[in-house]
């Protein structure tokens, strides 16, 4: 009787070198396709996240402006690009120069606090800051429409 380890295997057992190389090549292509898909997904996700953050920043700014107008005791335009809103204990000044929208809080006997709310980095799809048409009816502020860049009414 021949010992177990010395028996010959049938010719159909195992894989040939060509089959092994072919399996390796297919596995490499599948891995590369997965890597390309992952990279594309991450690039798209970062672009969408940037746009969503810019949109959220614009929404927060509009909400803050709406509250400032709603709670103001009086409002006065100071020049073509500045709005002063007087509140009980402080003054809020909104100003814009086409590049940056700022909000400044001025309290009595304290230095003013300046907030840069929107800048050229807050663009959505290259739209830039542009302008927004607003209507104040009583104490309510209504957003009418976004105007194209450079449009002034």
Written account of the structure:
The chain is of the alpha+beta class and 153 residues long. 36% of the residues lie in helices and 29% in strands. It is built from one helix and seven strands. The strands form two sheets. A five-stranded antiparallel β-sheet has the order 1-2-3-4-5, with helices on one face. A hairpin with a 4-residue loop joins β1 (74-77) and β2 (82-86).
Radius of gyration: 32 Å
Oligomeric state of the chains present here: single chain
Characterize the main sheet. Answer: 5 strands, antiparallel
Query: What fraction strand?
Result: 25-35%
| Helicity range | 25-40%
What is the 3D shape? rod-shaped
Order of helices and strands: HEEEEEEE
Number of strands: 7
Count of helical regions:
1
Spans of 5+ residues with little confidence (pLDDT < 50)? 122-130, 149-153
- Termini gap: 104 Å
Based on secondary structure, the structural category is alpha+beta
What average pLDDT do the residues reach?
79
Strand order within the widest sheet? 1-2-3-4-5
């Amino acid at each position: 009787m021949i010992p177990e380890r010395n028996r010959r295997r049938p010719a159909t057992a195992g894989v040939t070198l060509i089959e092994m190389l072919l399996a390796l090549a297919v596995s490499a292509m599948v891995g590369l396709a997965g890597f390309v898909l992952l990279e594309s997904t991450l690039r798209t996700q970062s672009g969408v996240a940037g746009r969503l953050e810019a949109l959220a920043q614009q929404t927060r700014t509009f909400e803050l402006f709406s509250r400032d107008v709603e709670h103001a005791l009086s409002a006065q335009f100071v020049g073509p690009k500045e709005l002063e809103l007087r509140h009980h204990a402080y003054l809020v000044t909104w100003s814009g120069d086409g590049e940056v929208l700022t909000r400044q809080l001025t309290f009595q006997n304290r230095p003013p606090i300046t907030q840069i709310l929107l800048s050229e980095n807050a663009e959505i799809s290259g739209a830039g800051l542009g302008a927004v048409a607003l209507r104040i009816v009583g104490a309510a502020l209504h957003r009418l429409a976004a105007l194209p860049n450079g449009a002034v009414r």
